[in-house]
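Hey, can you fold this one?
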Amino acid sequence: MLKRAVIGLLFLVVAVLLVRYAREVDWRAVVAVVRGYSPSTLLLAAALAAASYALYGCYDLIGRRQVGHRLRAVQVLATACVSYAFNLNLGALVGGVALRYRLYSRLGLTADTITQVLALSMATNWLGYLVLAGGAFIVFPLVLPADWMVGRASLRLIGLLLLALAAAYVLMCFAMRRRVWRLRGHAFRLPSGPMALLQLALSAANWMLIAGVVAVLLNGRLDYPTVLGVLLIAAVAGVVAHVPAGLGVLEAVFIAFLSHRVAQAELLGALLAYRAIYYLAPLMLALGVYLSLEAQAKREAASAGVDA
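Sure. Predicted structure:
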């Protein structure tokens, strides 16, 4: 009940913010911002997005190493990147979970193996988040609007808590004697210490690349640490709200935190371009790859039936 209440409250806050700011936005100016991007800026943003997707695919390569399945690296990368694109646009249950299970099961992995790979990927993703968010809130606390109740001291306390959680995970991986844990009938093996550090490095680099896409599209109007900090807050808000693609949540958070520093039209223009480059374009590519993987799986199944 508490979870539903929090989600409902967040939906209400986002809706109010969207209605409030939508009435004040000069949408012609937003369109002008999007049209004004140079090809070099868009290419740089696209290159950072591609690098981010490649790093995310490596999360599942860590899972392959950890559980020991024998799928080829290209199959793992394709499955992870396709699932990630669907996850961003349609939500975690559709892309991050259901699609991963379907694609990996088509490639011959058992449900238990897929569950372990998925759990390790999620741990990798949020480990880097904890470290980056914790460090950003402590070293580069956001300059919040004057009427906000949360101050820099509170942000630093939150940052310390996030760093403590990340440190606890890494220390467990180095020091725990009990390496296998069971949850709902599934066995999960704790990664080694060096593997945990690799998880941390890949995830932190990925989150930094995502923030880099937004920073490039803002054309230097904000310093990078500020963009990173607000993006990390928006990411959690989107997860809590359970809105597919974080639709409206990302924009509401950026406007709430930064509209006193950057014109709304410039913020929204950058975020619309970001969605096109990081969400929609990869989704179109992922759809093509997914259909290709499905066709390949059907051919292999038919071939196996003929051979039998």
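The chain has a mean pLDDT of 83. Let me know if you want another pass with a different chain boundary.
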